[in-house]
Amino acid sequence: MNILDLVVGKPIKTSDERAEQIGPTQGTPIFGLDGLSSAAYGPEAALSLPIPLGLLGVRYIVTISAAIITLFAIVYFSYRQTIAAYPSGGGSYTVARFNLGASAGPLAAAALLADYILTAAVGISAGVGALVSAVPPLLRHTVSLCVGILIVITIMNLRGVREAGTAFAVPTCLFVGTLLITIVAGVLRVLFSGGHPTPAVPLPPPPAMTEAVSYWLLLKVFASGCTADGRGSGQQRRQGFRRAHRKNAQRTLSVIIFLLVGLLAGISYLVKTYGIPCESEGF
Residue 100, by phi and psi: left (phi above 0), alpha (psi -120 to 50) or beta? Predict the structure, then answer.
């Protein structure tokens, strides 16, 4: 075994391809990792803009989140139709090429490539930013940590869908599980306190209002909040699923969207109910 085989695994024979196919359980963490992780930085991106509105800006987060969730619903039903219409697999490139012409395909592919690059960059930097905020001595190693995590993710993806799904399942489940526990605990405190919860640590005073509400500002908040990405890669790589490719891809997409909507709605509700002030570093 050479070094390359040791790092990314041995080449897989065509006859052994079925052994790499996965089900919805493994498909959710590997295909939904980018979408689910965006729940960590999507609301933060939305809350970082209404700072000039002071505490009033927090009150708009539920409305903005509702608009984003509506957009997710549109994307969800659109992707379900794409999965059914293109059983051999295909995403934006395939849909654009067959419906808008050959010249539209490369344009959609270029946009998708830029989206994937930005998703990896934003997701990794947001995660490292959270880690550095918890462990300040790591601040000087920020770039090294980002590059190191990118290398690990790249190697895991090169090892195949099945191994990547197994490796990504643990951190994805841990992230979703802990965030759900936080949301449930926050909602229970709201219910037990009669709708007026008391924060465990006093919140800092909100910034003074320095700007009036405008449609342009709300549209910017909506656009920033849309960094919470609801699309599922399963609609493009459905051939990676074992048996009933279409149904498994649709089920995986449904689970991803359901979890993401629940996380965004829960975070938005707690932010508004607790009156958490937004700051430039996060919320």
Answer: alpha
Closest alpha carbon to 261 in 123, 120, 73: 73
Q: Measured between alpha carbons, how far is 281 from 273 in angstroms, rounded to an integer?
A: 20
Closest CA to 233 of 168, 181, 175: 168
Number of domains in the chain: 1
Torsion of CA 241, 245, 247, 250, to 10 degrees: 70
Neighbours of 189 (CB within 10 A): 16
Phi, psi of 22 (to 5 degrees): -125, 170
Q: Is residue 63 situated within a structural domain?
A: yes
| Residue 161 clears pLDDT 90, i.e. is over it | no
Q: Tell me, yes or no, whether 245 lies in a domain.
A: yes
Residues 38, 228 contacting (CB under 8 angstroms) = yes
Q: Comparing C-alpha atoms, which of 237, 254, 233, 256 is closest to residue 245?
A: 237
pTM, rounded to two decimals: 0.74
Structural domain includes residue 118: no
Q: What 3 state SS string does 175-244 have?
A: HHHHHHHHHHHHHHHHHHCCCCCCCCCCCCCCCCCCCCCCHHHHHHHHHHHCCCCCCCHHHCCHHHECCC
46: pLDDT strictly greater than 60: yes
- Domain hosting 61: range is 21-89+165-274
Residue 226 and residue 71 in contact, taking contact as beta carbons nearer than 8 Å = yes
CA distance 145 to 128: 7
Would you say residue 16 lies in a domain? Answer: no
* Cβ atoms of residues 43 and 269 within 8 Å: no
Across the chain, mean pLDDT equals: 76
